[in-house]
Amino acid sequence: MSDTGEEWQVARRRKGAARKSKPIQVSSYSSCCQEQLDIGKTVKRIRDTVSELRSEVFCQLWKEQVLVAGSATLSKPPENRDTDGTTDQLSRCPQLECVCYGLGSFSSCVSARFQLAMLLLLLDAGQIPLRDCSVYDPMFSSGERDVLRELGLTVLTENEEGKRLVTKPTLFYLMHCGKALYNNLLWKNWSTKCLSQMIIIGNSFTGMMDRTIEREFKRDYSYVTQAVSVCEEGQLPCPSRLIDIFSDTAVITFPTSSLNKLPQSTWAEPPEPKYQHCPDLEIIQREAKS
How far apart, in whole angstroms, are the C-alpha atoms of residue 46 and residue 42? Predict the structure, then answer.
């Protein structure tokens, strides 16, 4: 029980706010874990978790909803469903790529490991090549980066802070990430062309608003605030025993028909978010270049 308790404590610390003014340092404990991480054993633990999730009913429902969203984003009509509830045409979307931010330390945190396993299952369901999924978290140790490469994923080397411009239909896997990361992503793609090519698997935008003082939310996260009125959210199911891992997760898309209803002035020269009133920003920002 103590090991499990420690894992959940790591998860809570990982998902908590990171102070903007505090420099990021690698502790001696973290360095020790990097040296001792058994790559093969860690890969096996992840694959065992994938096998555990694969048989779950809620996992099949996740795959179905995500694949339907992928079909809509790629502007392809769904075909007849397979016996497992997915869609035949939807399971072949080579145009779709994936970006995953904020996964956490999956070698020590059970929730992060389950979230990684779910990501691998969704990539398999959509037949998205592993190399077309880019992952990044400033918390990854060197050993964890090696594990991700061993699995076949592409490990990013730069902290993009979510500011990635999409050039093709892209699935963003952002499990329990900070509000600023979502806001940054929306700002960078604040146009009808870019937003309509995005699928987000992450925290419900409406849920974020409900848990934050409205005045402060509109001031600090203006792009999420505006997106609420034009996005479509499909809440993803979560069994009670995994509530801390997959709760409040939705598939979020941006239909062109909804985006086109907004006045053209909505998209004119969107200012970059500064977060001047957020002392406890929920993301780790990249270090300023001297």
Answer: 6
Distances (CA, A) of 278 to 93, 94, 139, 204, 281: 39, 39, 21, 21, 6
Q: What is the 3-state secondary structure (H, E, C) of 54-101?
A: HCCHHHHHHHHHHHHHHHHHCCCCCCCECCCCCECHHHCCCCCEEEEE
pLDDT tens digits along 151-181: 999 999 999 999 999 999 999 999 999 999 9
- Bridge partners of 235, per DSSP, are 250
- pLDDT tens digits for range 46-73: 999 999 999 999 999 999 999 899 888 8
- Position 70 scores a pLDDT of 87
Flag whether pLDDT at 205 surpasses 60.
Answer: yes
Q: Maximum CA pair distance of the chain?
A: 57
Q: Is residue 143 within a helix (H) or strand (E), and if so which, with residue range?
A: helix 142-151
Q: How many CA atoms lie within 13 A of 248 on its CB side?
A: 14
Q: How far apart are the first and last CA of the chain?
A: 46
Rounded Cα distance between 103 and 289, Å, is: 25
Residue 40 and residue 47 in contact, taking contact as beta carbons nearer than 8 Å:
no
Whether pTM > 0.90 for this model: the answer is no
CATH class of 44-267: alpha beta
User: d(Cα 224, Cα 102) in Å, to the nearest integer?
Assistant: 18
Residue type, 259: L
| Nearest Cα residue to 102 out of 87, 116, 122, 84 | 116
The C-alpha angle 230, 231, 234, rounded to 5 degrees, equals: 150
d(CA 113, CA 231): 29
